[in-house]
Specification:
Blueprint lengths: L3 H7 L37 E6 L8 E6 L9 E8 L3 E8 L7 E5 L4 H4 L3 E6 L6 E5 L20 E3 L18 E2 L6 E6 L4 E6 L4 E6 L15 E5 L14 E4 L4 E6 L4 E6 L4 E5 L9 E6 L3 E5 L6 E7 L2 E6 L4 E6 L5 E6 L5 E6 L5 E5 L4 E6 L2
Parallel strand pairs: 13-18
Antiparallel strand pairs: 1-26, 2-3, 3-4, 4-5, 6-7, 7-8, 8-9, 10-11, 11-12, 12-13, 14-15, 15-16, 16-19, 17-18, 20-21, 21-22, 22-23, 24-25, 25-26
Amino acid sequence: MLPASSMRLATATLLALSVGACKGDSASDGDDDGTNPAGVTFPDYTPGFTVIAKAGDGLDKPQDLDFHPDADREFELWVVNKRTEDTGSDMVIIHDAGLSSQTSENRMDGNAWHFMNQVSAIAFSDDNGNWATSAEIHDANHSGTPESEPAFSGPSLWSSNLDVFARPSGGNGSHLDMLHQSPQAMGIAHDVDNAFWVFDGFADEIVWYDFVTDHGPGNDDHSDGKVKRYSDLPLKKIAGTPGHMVVDKSTDWLYICDPGNSQILRMDIFSGTKDFDLAANFESLAKHFQMKDEVWEVFADTNLQEPTGIDLDGELLYVTDKATGEIIGFSLETGEELGRIQTDAGAIMGIKVGPDGNLYYVDRKSNKVNRVDQN
């Protein structure tokens, strides 16, 4: 049986379509009567849209969003602004998002210019309340490194403790850790503890990062970091269009938006073996090596243009398409496209299923966070 939130969402979607096809080994085209085996349907039902936050609340080119995973902070919505390379990115924290008691605050780290610049995506750890960012910037030191060469950039780890994040803690800002092996990173998803998956846009690879034990706010010891690279997946970035990712922790599939190839890929996160050790650029690491023989497949590649945002809810996978402004629902069991919600977004990006079962998404062009309502 689907979670209640999935069942609620399934009644608040537009265009009852069954046009997709799964590309995986376990694919099924559905039953002969046109229903899908997962039992999830998308009625011809037009949802409503509510603006949760806008430019007046501090939004400035919002890229992604995530709800705090703790039950006592479940309506706390974190929205990351891309802003500019000269300023760095910042965060709008919306307390009691969508409720009558909603308030918001804008926070910018003291060294966002390096540790939080041109952020493409964020992801909370489900285990400890920390969160991490991927940064599309090529060189976080802004030293003029040619874009054809590796540069000093990669994911950063942060605390969601409001007494720590973006509070004075020294010349290195309030970040908890940073590793520097992935310039032009386009997406990020949580794995376990302080480990995250990253879409490395410079190499067009999936890279696993483990910050292990963070060095504390504003410090700089990265020597316990571990990095594994997966190069077999056919990824292609589009500059300015994140490739968001999400891990289904019930099946160990990592789902990846691949906007440059107009498809959704998935990879078994426990597949693959070590191939060989790699030298680390710019820093000492505990481990850095190349993987081989990872298991991956194309999950969806029909009627997609620039898939960018992605989230899971029970047996449903939601994807946003920046080129069309649509939210597209897929059955995780079959890969079948179940329906589409047409939004008025000019540049839809990250999407998240909220604690109320509704969908929340950012529109970078209009500087808004919107909620999809069940009318």
